[in-house]
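FORM 7B - TANDEM STRUCTURE REPORT

SECTION 1: FIRST PROTEIN
SEQUENCE AND TOKENS:
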Amino acid sequence: MKTLKLLARSIRENRRDAVFSILYVALEVVCECIIPFVMAKLIDSSGVDWSSLLLYGAILIALATAALLFGILSGKACARAGAGFAANLR
């Protein structure tokens, strides 16, 4: 327990990046979990209406782009937090 407290104190100024990393990963997972539901809705829609096809396609592209963006931001925040934590630990 004493070691855990020592490690927790070493994160200091990198706490913001650590919290944002967790937040970005959670948002990425939410976006990626919504995609199958949108695909199911697209498949279940009756008939081939081009306007609904384009709408669902745009929604899928937006969700995939958002998931990609959150993944990139998570990687950057995690790298900054990890490097700062390691520097403070030394």
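SECTION 2: SECOND PROTEIN
SEQUENCE AND TOKENS:
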Amino acid sequence: EPVSKLPLANLTPVQREVFDLVVAGCDEHMIADRLSRSFHTVHHHVQAIFRKLDVHSRTELLALVLNASQ
């Protein structure tokens, strides 16, 4: 699994769920619906994931995942 090369141990279990859904292509509204959480809560989780993985956007996050798969 490519993401096993990423430092995901620093993510909380909920952040890992959000991470998986972001990587699967879900937007924050879809993630909120799937996890039965508010959009704002999901947005805060996404921002925390970005900080922990040292990226600044969804594009950078996806590039990080793609690079880990090589």
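SECTION 3: OBSERVATIONS ON SECOND PROTEIN
The CA atoms of residues 6 and 68 lie 7 Å apart.
The longest helix spans residues 39-53.

SECTION 4: SIGNATURE
Preparer initials: ____
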